Amino acid sequence: MLQGLSHQAREAKSWPFEQARLLLDRICRLRLTDGERDLAAALFAEGKFREAAAALPNLVSKPVVFQCGFGASGLPHMGTFGEAARPTIVRNAFRALTEDAIPSKLIVFSDDMDGLRKIPDNVPNREMLEEDRDKPVTQVRDPFGEHESFGAHNNARLRAFLDGFGFDYEFMSSTDCYKSGRFDAVLLQVLERFDKIQAIMLPTLGEERRATYSPFLPISPKTGKVLQAPTLERNVDKGTITFADEDGTLTEVPVTGGHVKLQWRPDWAARWTALEVDFEASGKDLVDSVRVSNRVCQALGGTPPEAFHFELFMDENNQKISKSKGNGLTMEEWLRYGTPESLTYYMFQSPKSAKRLYFDVIPKATDEYLSHLDALHRADKPPLDNPAWHVHGGAPPAKGSPVSFSLLLNLVSAADASTKEILWGFLSRYIPGATPQSEPLLDKLAGYAINYYEDFVRPSKSFRSPDDRERAAMLDLAARLKALPAGADAEAIQNEVFEAGKAGGFEPLRAWFGALYEVLLGQSQGPRFGSFVAIFGVERTLDLIDRALAGKLAA
User: Residues 432, 504: one domain?
Assistant: First the structure.
């Protein structure tokens, strides 16, 4: 799938390939000597990535690591999808650029050793969680009663969520990394370089916080809680810190073995260092945190990953989406009205621009995705800047949909279709031989269109009566439709619609189409009208025009 794409990938302009090329430069810079880099550049220029991998073993000595994080104190959500989708998109571009000659992996890291500071609103048994407040989430009892801890429950939900979308990833648990010893070496480095890290962190904090801040959050041996306690003493030789426990008792614990948790910025830096992370994407709101964590990573002797910052989503009022406010759109809501692929497309497009994440973006995103998928199928060679290539990781489905989502919406509206069976009665006549089995994507879209129409279009439909000019033009259109030969296609119908608008003196013609949508469909926008008539049927359209001109629709 990926062989022979490297030349196109070097020329591709889309943002994932820009990031992939930066990442390849990084790998060469960190793993190769000056002479080896010259050889690599020469081989890369000829698209000989497999030859480079064979000649330069350090280039492929370990995987290129993409990483994203998950806050295990809550359930997976829309942001979780984006956190995994964007690095996956860049990873796919990197694999195409290098013809998969350089191994790579995506780590999904669960911050499940964080203390439970805030009780989520969307869980049962909140009183029980209140009793376990401040304990690591893997020590908090599961309010659903299904797993050994709340953290384990959320991790299981996360993995099922990612598996359901087909993400290729390696799961890692913060608790496992701290307790198994995987982070021991970097934790001892934090202890040894404590003063350097404090010099980086303290200027970023307020005066009160500076007085007690420590990169180490000790876990109380008595209560099991993750404490915001200052480090009173350090013993680098023993690998321990001393702090005052909640009852005031001076307590000495090792920094290894899961006895402490790092504050989140040092934790981020330590993770990058220990796991040798090469790429991480994060929201624009974390730019300063990335900058600080980069410095801590360097103080620990690590190399910060390539960072990609994306803009945040806004709600319908242009307010930043907040989990606590519950504004914006949830994952479940999107998937009631649109395909997972349309959501991936929305995550892909213009990541550096703020975008509204609300119900009304779904039809447009769906149709844009479908048009890109159609263009991908028509192309002689894989167009790597086509968003659909990225949505499907270079392996698109064999076919798209012969009917747009907006057209389906209007068909549902005009036919008052309440089931997919009713819709397929029209679709099978429009596309001879088509069935839900032969057109699986179209069948899914039909279900989404019914849901969207019932929840959003039907309640807001508002028909109006035509004015005199519009009435005359619609009578002309009806006459033209009657004169068409049986079986006229969408293009022939569209030509007659244009001619009726021109003869009616509509300038620009979009005013004519706007009138058709508002008078006949009860909405301000609609599909290509010729295609709509071809599917809905000329006779049914003529009846629709008759009822509109008789005032029955507006009534």
Answer: no
Are 221 and 320 members of one domain? Answer: no
Q: Is the confidence at residue 328, as pLDDT, over 70?
A: no
Domain assignment present for 189: no
**Total number of domains in the chain:** 5
Range of the domain at 60: 6-180
Residue 434 and residue 324 in one domain:
no
pLDDT confidence band for 413 (50 / 70 / 90): confident
260-262 vs 279-283, strand pairing mode? unpaired
Residue 554 domain-assigned?
no
Q: What b/e readout covers 375-406, taking b as 16+ CB neighbours within 10 angstroms? A: ebeeeeebbbebbbbbbbbbebeeebbebbbb
Q: Are residues 342 and 381 in the same domain?
A: yes
Percent above pLDDT 90 for the chain: 82
Tens of pLDDT, residue by residue over 181-200, are 999 999 999 999 999 999 99
User: What stretches of 453-509 show up as alpha helix (H) in DSSP?
Assistant: 458-460, 468-483, 490-503
Q: What is the residue whose two structure tokens read 């794409």? A: 5
The SS3 of residue 272 is: helix
First to last CA, the chain: 58
Same domain, yes or no, for 344 and 443?
Answer: no
CATH number at residue 103: 3.40.50.620
133/139 Cα distance (integer angstroms): 10
Q: What is the pLDDT of residues 504-513, one digit of tens each?
A: 999 999 999 9
Q: Provide the pairing of β-strand 216-218 with 260-262.
A: antiparallel
Task: Using the Cα atoms of residue 17, residue 22, residue 26 and residue 32 in order, give the sign of their dihedral.
Answer: positive
